[in-house]
Design brief:
Blueprint: H1 2-17, H2 29-33, E1 52-56, H3 62-69, E2 74-79, H4 83-97, E3 102-104, H5 108-111, E4 118-121, H6 125-137, E5 141-145, H7 152-165, E6 169-172, H8 182-191, E7 198-204, H9 225-229, E8 239-240, E9 247-248, H10 264-267, H11 269-279, E10 289-295, E11 300-301, E12 304-305, E13 316-325, E14 328-335, E15 341-346, E16 349-354, E17 357-359, H12 361-364, H13 375-379, H14 388-398, H15 406-425, E18 429-432, E19 437-438, H16 442-445
Parallel strand pairs: 1-2, 1-4, 2-3, 4-5, 5-6, 7-14
Antiparallel strand pairs: 7-15, 8-9, 10-13, 10-18, 11-12, 13-14, 15-16, 16-17, 18-19
Protein backbone atom coordinates (compact mmCIF):
# COMPACT_ATOMS: atom_id res chain seq x y z
CA UNK A 1 0.00 0.00 0.00
CA UNK A 2 3.03 2.31 0.33
CA UNK A 3 3.16 2.68 -3.41
CA UNK A 4 -0.50 3.77 -3.60
CA UNK A 5 0.06 6.48 -0.98
CA UNK A 6 3.05 7.71 -2.96
CA UNK A 7 0.81 7.96 -6.04
CA UNK A 8 -1.68 10.11 -4.11
CA UNK A 9 1.10 12.41 -2.96
CA UNK A 10 2.35 12.80 -6.54
CA UNK A 11 -1.19 13.46 -7.71
CA UNK A 12 -1.86 16.22 -5.20
CA UNK A 13 1.48 17.82 -6.01
CA UNK A 14 0.55 17.75 -9.71
CA UNK A 15 -2.83 19.35 -9.14
CA UNK A 16 -1.40 22.00 -6.83
CA UNK A 17 1.45 23.09 -9.08
CA UNK A 18 0.04 22.13 -12.50
CA UNK A 19 3.42 20.65 -13.33
CA UNK A 20 3.77 17.41 -15.24
CA UNK A 21 5.81 14.88 -13.35
CA UNK A 22 8.91 13.79 -15.25
CA UNK A 23 8.59 10.42 -16.94
CA UNK A 24 10.40 7.50 -15.35
CA UNK A 25 12.75 5.30 -17.33
CA UNK A 26 11.56 2.00 -18.72
CA UNK A 27 10.64 -0.50 -15.99
CA UNK A 28 11.12 -4.20 -16.49
CA UNK A 29 7.97 -6.34 -16.85
CA UNK A 30 8.83 -7.99 -13.53
CA UNK A 31 8.91 -4.65 -11.74
CA UNK A 32 5.71 -3.53 -13.45
CA UNK A 33 4.02 -6.75 -12.36
CA UNK A 34 4.96 -5.86 -8.81
CA UNK A 35 2.65 -2.83 -8.91
CA UNK A 36 -0.50 -4.96 -9.30
CA UNK A 37 -3.38 -4.16 -6.96
CA UNK A 38 -6.35 -6.45 -6.52
CA UNK A 39 -9.76 -4.78 -6.59
CA UNK A 40 -10.12 -4.86 -2.80
CA UNK A 41 -6.60 -3.54 -2.24
CA UNK A 42 -7.15 -0.73 -4.74
CA UNK A 43 -9.84 0.87 -2.57
CA UNK A 44 -8.63 4.01 -0.88
CA UNK A 45 -10.07 6.62 1.41
CA UNK A 46 -12.36 9.21 -0.19
CA UNK A 47 -10.47 12.03 -1.89
CA UNK A 48 -11.43 15.21 -3.71
CA UNK A 49 -8.89 14.95 -6.52
CA UNK A 50 -9.73 13.51 -9.91
CA UNK A 51 -8.13 10.38 -11.42
CA UNK A 52 -5.05 11.00 -13.54
CA UNK A 53 -5.24 9.67 -17.09
CA UNK A 54 -2.71 8.56 -19.68
CA UNK A 55 -3.98 8.40 -23.27
CA UNK A 56 -2.52 5.74 -25.56
CA UNK A 57 -3.51 6.51 -29.14
CA UNK A 58 -4.72 10.01 -30.07
CA UNK A 59 -6.05 9.54 -33.59
CA UNK A 60 -9.49 10.27 -34.98
CA UNK A 61 -11.56 8.19 -32.55
CA UNK A 62 -9.67 9.57 -29.53
CA UNK A 63 -11.07 13.01 -30.35
CA UNK A 64 -14.33 11.72 -28.86
CA UNK A 65 -12.93 9.39 -26.19
CA UNK A 66 -10.27 11.76 -24.84
CA UNK A 67 -12.49 14.82 -24.29
CA UNK A 68 -15.14 12.59 -22.70
CA UNK A 69 -12.57 11.20 -20.27
CA UNK A 70 -11.41 14.73 -19.42
CA UNK A 71 -14.87 15.47 -18.02
CA UNK A 72 -14.09 13.11 -15.15
CA UNK A 73 -10.31 13.07 -14.82
CA UNK A 74 -7.14 14.93 -15.77
CA UNK A 75 -4.89 13.84 -18.63
CA UNK A 76 -1.20 14.03 -17.70
CA UNK A 77 0.41 12.35 -20.72
CA UNK A 78 -0.47 11.22 -24.24
CA UNK A 79 1.08 8.74 -26.64
CA UNK A 80 0.91 7.96 -30.35
CA UNK A 81 3.24 6.41 -32.93
CA UNK A 82 2.28 9.15 -35.39
CA UNK A 83 3.78 12.48 -34.34
CA UNK A 84 1.01 14.38 -36.15
CA UNK A 85 -1.64 12.62 -34.03
CA UNK A 86 0.47 13.06 -30.93
CA UNK A 87 0.84 16.81 -31.34
CA UNK A 88 -2.86 17.17 -32.13
CA UNK A 89 -3.67 15.25 -28.95
CA UNK A 90 -1.40 17.51 -26.90
CA UNK A 91 -3.08 20.57 -28.43
CA UNK A 92 -6.58 19.29 -27.58
CA UNK A 93 -5.56 18.50 -24.00
CA UNK A 94 -4.02 21.95 -23.56
CA UNK A 95 -7.15 23.64 -24.92
CA UNK A 96 -9.37 21.76 -22.49
CA UNK A 97 -7.16 21.65 -19.41
CA UNK A 98 -5.18 24.87 -19.81
CA UNK A 99 -1.76 23.28 -19.50
CA UNK A 100 0.71 21.34 -21.61
CA UNK A 101 1.22 17.62 -21.13
CA UNK A 102 4.06 15.34 -22.13
CA UNK A 103 3.82 13.25 -25.25
CA UNK A 104 5.49 9.96 -26.07
CA UNK A 105 5.87 7.59 -29.01
CA UNK A 106 6.24 4.47 -26.82
CA UNK A 107 3.16 3.53 -24.77
CA UNK A 108 5.36 1.97 -22.08
CA UNK A 109 6.36 5.48 -21.02
CA UNK A 110 2.72 6.00 -20.06
CA UNK A 111 2.58 2.74 -18.08
CA UNK A 112 5.80 3.68 -16.25
CA UNK A 113 4.10 6.71 -14.67
CA UNK A 114 3.13 5.59 -11.18
CA UNK A 115 0.84 8.57 -10.60
CA UNK A 116 -1.39 7.61 -13.56
CA UNK A 117 -4.54 5.80 -12.43
CA UNK A 118 -6.28 5.19 -15.76
CA UNK A 119 -5.31 4.63 -19.37
CA UNK A 120 -7.47 5.04 -22.44
CA UNK A 121 -6.49 2.73 -25.31
CA UNK A 122 -7.61 4.04 -28.69
CA UNK A 123 -5.25 2.29 -31.08
CA UNK A 124 -5.77 -0.03 -34.06
CA UNK A 125 -7.37 -3.32 -32.98
CA UNK A 126 -4.22 -5.44 -33.27
CA UNK A 127 -2.56 -3.43 -30.45
CA UNK A 128 -5.47 -3.52 -27.95
CA UNK A 129 -4.71 -6.77 -26.14
CA UNK A 130 -0.98 -6.30 -25.56
CA UNK A 131 -1.38 -2.77 -24.22
CA UNK A 132 -4.41 -3.67 -22.09
CA UNK A 133 -2.66 -6.65 -20.51
CA UNK A 134 0.46 -4.65 -19.72
CA UNK A 135 -1.62 -1.75 -18.40
CA UNK A 136 -3.48 -3.99 -15.96
CA UNK A 137 -0.18 -5.53 -14.83
CA UNK A 138 1.14 -2.01 -14.26
CA UNK A 139 -1.75 -1.30 -11.88
CA UNK A 140 -3.83 0.83 -14.25
CA UNK A 141 -7.58 0.73 -14.76
CA UNK A 142 -8.48 0.57 -18.44
CA UNK A 143 -10.91 2.11 -20.92
CA UNK A 144 -10.33 0.41 -24.28
CA UNK A 145 -12.16 0.95 -27.53
CA UNK A 146 -13.83 -1.97 -29.25
CA UNK A 147 -13.24 -4.53 -30.60
CA UNK A 148 -11.04 -5.53 -27.70
CA UNK A 149 -9.37 -8.46 -29.44
CA UNK A 150 -8.06 -9.67 -32.79
CA UNK A 151 -8.27 -13.36 -31.82
CA UNK A 152 -10.19 -15.57 -29.39
CA UNK A 153 -7.01 -16.44 -27.51
CA UNK A 154 -6.36 -12.76 -26.80
CA UNK A 155 -9.71 -12.60 -25.03
CA UNK A 156 -8.74 -15.56 -22.86
CA UNK A 157 -5.43 -13.87 -21.99
CA UNK A 158 -7.17 -10.62 -21.05
CA UNK A 159 -9.65 -12.46 -18.81
CA UNK A 160 -6.79 -14.24 -17.05
CA UNK A 161 -4.92 -11.02 -16.29
CA UNK A 162 -8.12 -9.19 -15.41
CA UNK A 163 -8.99 -11.84 -12.85
CA UNK A 164 -5.46 -11.75 -11.41
CA UNK A 165 -5.27 -7.96 -11.10
CA UNK A 166 -8.90 -7.01 -10.37
CA UNK A 167 -8.64 -3.80 -12.40
CA UNK A 168 -11.73 -1.89 -13.50
CA UNK A 169 -12.09 -2.32 -17.26
CA UNK A 170 -14.62 -0.70 -19.59
CA UNK A 171 -14.88 -1.59 -23.30
CA UNK A 172 -16.09 1.15 -25.66
CA UNK A 173 -19.37 -0.47 -26.73
CA UNK A 174 -21.40 2.68 -26.19
CA UNK A 175 -24.69 1.10 -27.34
CA UNK A 176 -24.91 -0.39 -23.84
CA UNK A 177 -25.20 3.11 -22.39
CA UNK A 178 -26.15 5.74 -24.94
CA UNK A 179 -28.06 6.14 -28.25
CA UNK A 180 -31.08 7.53 -26.34
CA UNK A 181 -31.24 4.20 -24.47
CA UNK A 182 -32.82 2.52 -27.51
CA UNK A 183 -30.72 -0.61 -27.18
CA UNK A 184 -31.25 -0.82 -23.43
CA UNK A 185 -35.02 -0.58 -23.89
CA UNK A 186 -34.89 -3.24 -26.60
CA UNK A 187 -32.92 -5.59 -24.35
CA UNK A 188 -35.32 -4.93 -21.47
CA UNK A 189 -38.36 -5.69 -23.65
CA UNK A 190 -36.89 -8.92 -24.99
CA UNK A 191 -35.92 -10.06 -21.50
CA UNK A 192 -39.43 -9.17 -20.27
CA UNK A 193 -40.95 -11.52 -22.87
CA UNK A 194 -42.61 -8.79 -24.94
CA UNK A 195 -41.99 -10.77 -28.17
CA UNK A 196 -42.46 -14.16 -26.55
CA UNK A 197 -39.84 -16.87 -26.95
CA UNK A 198 -37.01 -15.60 -29.16
CA UNK A 199 -36.40 -17.82 -32.18
CA UNK A 200 -34.00 -15.74 -34.27
CA UNK A 201 -31.95 -12.55 -34.06
CA UNK A 202 -30.57 -10.85 -37.15
CA UNK A 203 -27.65 -8.45 -36.83
CA UNK A 204 -27.21 -6.29 -39.94
CA UNK A 205 -23.82 -4.61 -39.74
CA UNK A 206 -23.16 -3.39 -43.27
CA UNK A 207 -20.57 -4.42 -45.81
CA UNK A 208 -16.93 -3.41 -46.04
CA UNK A 209 -15.23 -1.37 -48.77
CA UNK A 210 -12.83 -2.73 -51.35
CA UNK A 211 -9.72 -0.90 -52.55
CA UNK A 212 -8.19 -2.53 -55.58
CA UNK A 213 -4.37 -2.69 -55.66
CA UNK A 214 -2.69 -0.08 -53.48
CA UNK A 215 0.92 0.77 -54.36
CA UNK A 216 3.76 0.54 -51.87
CA UNK A 217 4.81 3.97 -50.66
CA UNK A 218 7.07 5.73 -48.21
CA UNK A 219 5.47 6.00 -44.79
CA UNK A 220 4.82 9.59 -43.67
CA UNK A 221 7.79 11.16 -41.92
CA UNK A 222 5.65 11.58 -38.79
CA UNK A 223 4.81 7.85 -38.55
CA UNK A 224 6.84 5.08 -36.91
CA UNK A 225 5.62 2.35 -39.28
CA UNK A 226 7.50 -0.46 -37.53
CA UNK A 227 5.95 0.43 -34.18
CA UNK A 228 2.49 0.88 -35.74
CA UNK A 229 2.71 -2.70 -37.09
CA UNK A 230 3.72 -4.09 -33.70
CA UNK A 231 2.81 -7.79 -33.49
CA UNK A 232 1.75 -7.90 -37.14
CA UNK A 233 4.13 -9.00 -39.92
CA UNK A 234 6.61 -6.47 -41.26
CA UNK A 235 5.25 -5.40 -44.67
CA UNK A 236 5.38 -2.40 -46.98
CA UNK A 237 3.41 0.71 -46.13
CA UNK A 238 0.79 1.28 -48.85
CA UNK A 239 -1.22 4.35 -49.79
CA UNK A 240 -3.14 6.00 -52.59
CA UNK A 241 -5.72 8.75 -52.65
CA UNK A 242 -9.37 7.82 -52.31
CA UNK A 243 -12.14 7.60 -49.76
CA UNK A 244 -12.22 9.79 -46.67
CA UNK A 245 -8.65 9.15 -45.53
CA UNK A 246 -7.22 7.54 -48.65
CA UNK A 247 -6.70 3.82 -49.20
CA UNK A 248 -3.90 2.46 -47.05
CA UNK A 249 -2.71 -0.21 -44.63
CA UNK A 250 -2.80 2.33 -41.83
CA UNK A 251 -4.93 4.52 -39.56
CA UNK A 252 -8.68 4.11 -40.09
CA UNK A 253 -8.28 1.86 -43.13
CA UNK A 254 -6.62 -0.79 -40.99
CA UNK A 255 -10.13 -2.17 -40.42
CA UNK A 256 -10.24 -3.79 -43.83
CA UNK A 257 -7.12 -5.94 -43.33
CA UNK A 258 -7.33 -9.21 -41.37
CA UNK A 259 -3.78 -8.61 -40.14
CA UNK A 260 -5.00 -5.70 -38.00
CA UNK A 261 -8.76 -6.18 -37.56
CA UNK A 262 -11.71 -8.37 -38.47
CA UNK A 263 -13.46 -6.16 -41.00
CA UNK A 264 -17.07 -5.22 -40.42
CA UNK A 265 -17.57 -8.52 -38.58
CA UNK A 266 -15.67 -7.21 -35.57
CA UNK A 267 -16.14 -3.48 -36.21
CA UNK A 268 -19.95 -3.33 -36.06
CA UNK A 269 -20.32 -6.90 -34.85
CA UNK A 270 -18.72 -5.78 -31.60
CA UNK A 271 -21.78 -3.56 -31.13
CA UNK A 272 -24.74 -5.51 -32.50
CA UNK A 273 -23.71 -9.07 -31.63
CA UNK A 274 -22.96 -7.84 -28.11
CA UNK A 275 -26.48 -6.43 -27.71
CA UNK A 276 -28.07 -9.51 -29.30
CA UNK A 277 -26.33 -11.98 -26.98
CA UNK A 278 -27.15 -9.80 -23.96
CA UNK A 279 -30.84 -9.72 -24.85
CA UNK A 280 -31.18 -13.48 -25.39
CA UNK A 281 -29.26 -14.33 -22.21
CA UNK A 282 -26.23 -15.76 -24.03
CA UNK A 283 -23.68 -13.07 -23.12
CA UNK A 284 -21.83 -15.61 -20.96
CA UNK A 285 -22.04 -18.40 -23.52
CA UNK A 286 -21.45 -19.01 -27.22
CA UNK A 287 -22.76 -20.65 -30.38
CA UNK A 288 -22.68 -24.40 -30.97
CA UNK A 289 -22.47 -24.22 -34.77
CA UNK A 290 -21.32 -21.49 -37.13
CA UNK A 291 -21.71 -21.54 -40.90
CA UNK A 292 -21.88 -18.96 -43.63
CA UNK A 293 -20.90 -17.61 -46.99
CA UNK A 294 -18.89 -14.53 -47.89
CA UNK A 295 -17.20 -12.63 -50.67
CA UNK A 296 -13.60 -11.59 -50.18
CA UNK A 297 -11.97 -9.03 -52.49
CA UNK A 298 -8.83 -11.20 -52.87
CA UNK A 299 -8.26 -14.97 -53.28
CA UNK A 300 -7.71 -17.03 -50.12
CA UNK A 301 -5.72 -20.21 -49.54
CA UNK A 302 -6.04 -22.16 -46.29
CA UNK A 303 -7.86 -19.21 -44.79
CA UNK A 304 -5.13 -16.69 -45.64
CA UNK A 305 -5.22 -13.90 -48.26
CA UNK A 306 -2.86 -14.43 -51.19
CA UNK A 307 -2.65 -10.78 -52.27
CA UNK A 308 -1.16 -8.29 -49.81
CA UNK A 309 -1.67 -5.23 -52.02
CA UNK A 310 -5.34 -4.53 -51.22
CA UNK A 311 -8.04 -4.80 -48.58
CA UNK A 312 -8.72 -8.45 -47.76
CA UNK A 313 -11.57 -8.48 -45.20
CA UNK A 314 -14.93 -9.79 -46.41
CA UNK A 315 -17.06 -7.11 -48.03
CA UNK A 316 -20.24 -9.28 -48.14
CA UNK A 317 -21.32 -12.09 -45.81
CA UNK A 318 -24.19 -14.08 -44.36
CA UNK A 319 -23.38 -16.14 -41.26
CA UNK A 320 -25.71 -18.24 -39.10
CA UNK A 321 -24.78 -19.08 -35.51
CA UNK A 322 -26.92 -21.49 -33.50
CA UNK A 323 -26.94 -20.97 -29.74
CA UNK A 324 -28.04 -23.90 -27.58
CA UNK A 325 -28.20 -24.14 -23.80
CA UNK A 326 -30.55 -26.50 -22.03
CA UNK A 327 -33.91 -26.24 -23.76
CA UNK A 328 -33.01 -22.86 -25.27
CA UNK A 329 -32.20 -22.65 -28.98
CA UNK A 330 -31.77 -19.33 -30.81
CA UNK A 331 -30.35 -18.62 -34.25
CA UNK A 332 -28.20 -15.51 -34.55
CA UNK A 333 -27.62 -14.22 -38.08
CA UNK A 334 -24.87 -11.76 -39.02
CA UNK A 335 -25.32 -10.15 -42.42
CA UNK A 336 -24.02 -7.27 -44.48
CA UNK A 337 -27.30 -6.33 -46.21
CA UNK A 338 -30.62 -4.93 -44.92
CA UNK A 339 -31.04 -1.98 -42.58
CA UNK A 340 -28.27 -1.57 -40.04
CA UNK A 341 -29.59 -2.74 -36.70
CA UNK A 342 -30.89 -5.77 -34.83
CA UNK A 343 -34.15 -7.60 -35.58
CA UNK A 344 -35.44 -9.80 -32.76
CA UNK A 345 -37.95 -12.40 -33.89
CA UNK A 346 -40.09 -14.17 -31.30
CA UNK A 347 -43.11 -16.46 -31.39
CA UNK A 348 -45.29 -13.51 -30.35
CA UNK A 349 -43.86 -10.65 -32.39
CA UNK A 350 -40.83 -8.78 -33.69
CA UNK A 351 -38.75 -5.87 -32.50
CA UNK A 352 -36.18 -3.82 -34.45
CA UNK A 353 -33.58 -1.56 -32.91
CA UNK A 354 -30.90 0.58 -34.55
CA UNK A 355 -29.09 3.74 -33.59
CA UNK A 356 -31.88 5.81 -35.06
CA UNK A 357 -34.88 3.56 -34.60
CA UNK A 358 -36.80 1.41 -32.12
CA UNK A 359 -39.96 -0.03 -33.59
CA UNK A 360 -42.38 -2.92 -33.57
CA UNK A 361 -45.67 -3.77 -31.93
CA UNK A 362 -44.05 -4.23 -28.49
CA UNK A 363 -42.83 -0.64 -28.69
CA UNK A 364 -46.32 0.63 -29.57
CA UNK A 365 -47.76 -1.33 -26.65
CA UNK A 366 -45.50 0.44 -24.15
CA UNK A 367 -48.03 3.27 -23.98
CA UNK A 368 -50.56 0.98 -22.30
CA UNK A 369 -48.17 -1.56 -20.83
CA UNK A 370 -44.94 0.21 -19.84
CA UNK A 371 -41.89 -1.55 -18.54
CA UNK A 372 -41.41 -1.46 -14.76
CA UNK A 373 -39.91 1.83 -13.61
CA UNK A 374 -36.67 0.16 -12.54
CA UNK A 375 -36.33 -2.12 -15.57
CA UNK A 376 -33.52 -0.11 -17.17
CA UNK A 377 -31.55 0.59 -13.99
CA UNK A 378 -31.72 -3.08 -12.97
CA UNK A 379 -30.42 -4.02 -16.41
CA UNK A 380 -27.70 -1.38 -16.01
CA UNK A 381 -26.35 -2.92 -12.78
CA UNK A 382 -28.30 -0.53 -10.59
CA UNK A 383 -26.85 2.67 -12.07
CA UNK A 384 -28.36 5.43 -14.20
CA UNK A 385 -27.41 4.97 -17.87
CA UNK A 386 -26.84 7.63 -20.49
CA UNK A 387 -23.07 8.21 -20.50
CA UNK A 388 -20.66 5.33 -21.10
CA UNK A 389 -17.59 7.20 -19.85
CA UNK A 390 -19.38 8.41 -16.72
CA UNK A 391 -20.29 4.80 -15.94
CA UNK A 392 -16.60 3.89 -16.12
CA UNK A 393 -15.51 6.62 -13.73
CA UNK A 394 -18.36 5.88 -11.32
CA UNK A 395 -17.19 2.28 -11.23
CA UNK A 396 -13.60 3.40 -10.63
CA UNK A 397 -14.72 4.96 -7.36
CA UNK A 398 -16.85 1.98 -6.37
CA UNK A 399 -14.23 -0.56 -7.58
CA UNK A 400 -16.93 -2.36 -9.56
CA UNK A 401 -16.98 -3.62 -13.13
CA UNK A 402 -18.75 -1.28 -15.61
CA UNK A 403 -21.65 -2.09 -17.91
CA UNK A 404 -19.39 -3.19 -20.78
CA UNK A 405 -17.28 -5.71 -18.91
CA UNK A 406 -14.52 -7.82 -20.42
CA UNK A 407 -16.23 -11.17 -19.78
CA UNK A 408 -19.35 -10.50 -21.84
CA UNK A 409 -17.37 -8.62 -24.48
CA UNK A 410 -15.05 -11.59 -24.89
CA UNK A 411 -18.06 -13.85 -25.50
CA UNK A 412 -19.53 -11.50 -28.12
CA UNK A 413 -16.18 -11.14 -29.84
CA UNK A 414 -15.73 -14.92 -29.81
CA UNK A 415 -18.90 -15.22 -31.90
CA UNK A 416 -17.54 -12.62 -34.36
CA UNK A 417 -14.12 -14.27 -34.54
CA UNK A 418 -15.71 -17.69 -35.14
CA UNK A 419 -17.80 -16.17 -37.93
CA UNK A 420 -14.64 -14.85 -39.56
CA UNK A 421 -12.85 -18.19 -39.22
CA UNK A 422 -15.80 -19.98 -40.83
CA UNK A 423 -15.95 -17.68 -43.84
CA UNK A 424 -12.18 -17.55 -44.26
CA UNK A 425 -11.95 -21.35 -44.33
CA UNK A 426 -15.28 -21.59 -46.19
CA UNK A 427 -16.69 -24.38 -44.03
CA UNK A 428 -19.01 -24.88 -41.02
CA UNK A 429 -17.58 -25.01 -37.52
CA UNK A 430 -18.67 -26.73 -34.32
CA UNK A 431 -17.85 -24.90 -31.09
CA UNK A 432 -17.81 -26.02 -27.47
CA UNK A 433 -18.83 -22.90 -25.48
CA UNK A 434 -17.81 -24.43 -22.16
CA UNK A 435 -14.31 -25.50 -23.22
CA UNK A 436 -13.99 -22.64 -25.75
CA UNK A 437 -12.62 -24.91 -28.45
CA UNK A 438 -13.54 -25.69 -32.04
CA UNK A 439 -14.52 -29.35 -32.27
CA UNK A 440 -12.82 -31.71 -34.73
CA UNK A 441 -10.96 -29.10 -36.79
CA UNK A 442 -7.35 -28.50 -35.80
CA UNK A 443 -6.73 -26.08 -38.65
CA UNK A 444 -9.65 -23.89 -37.56
CA UNK A 445 -8.51 -24.05 -33.92
CA UNK A 446 -5.18 -22.69 -35.09
CA UNK A 447 -6.97 -19.45 -36.01
CA UNK A 448 -7.78 -18.84 -32.34
CA UNK A 449 -4.37 -17.21 -31.95
CA UNK A 450 -1.71 -15.47 -34.01
CA UNK A 451 2.07 -15.54 -33.98
CA UNK A 452 3.52 -12.27 -32.72
CA UNK A 453 6.51 -10.68 -34.42
CA UNK A 454 9.73 -10.95 -32.41
CA UNK A 455 9.90 -8.26 -29.77
CA UNK A 456 6.14 -7.73 -29.60
CA UNK A 457 5.00 -10.88 -27.80
CA UNK A 458 2.14 -10.80 -25.29
CA UNK A 459 2.97 -12.15 -21.85
CA UNK A 460 -0.18 -12.87 -19.88
Amino acid sequence: MTQRKSGRTDRRRFLKNSVVVAAAGYLSPALLAGTNLRAGEAKSESRNDRPLIGCIGTGDRWKAVGPNAMKFGDVVAVCDVDRAHLEEGQRIVKERQGREVEGFEDYRRILDRKEIDVVTIVTPDHWHSKIAIEAMKAGKDVYCEKPLTLTIDEGKQILKVHQETGRVFQVGTQQRSEMNLRFLRAVAMVKAGRIGKVRRVQCAIGGAPTSGPIPAAEAPSTLNWNLWLGQAPLVDYRFNKGGRWGNSRCHYEFRWWYEYSGGKMTDWGAHHVDIAQWAIGMDDWGPSTIEGTAHHPVPFEDGMPTDDSQYNAADQFLVKCLFRRGDESVELVIRHDTENGILFEGDQGQLFVGRGALRGKPVEELADNPLPEDAITRLYKGRQPGDHMRNFFECLKAREQPISDVVTHHRAMTTCHLANIAIRLDRPLKWDPAKEQIIGDNEANGFQKRTARDGFEVKA
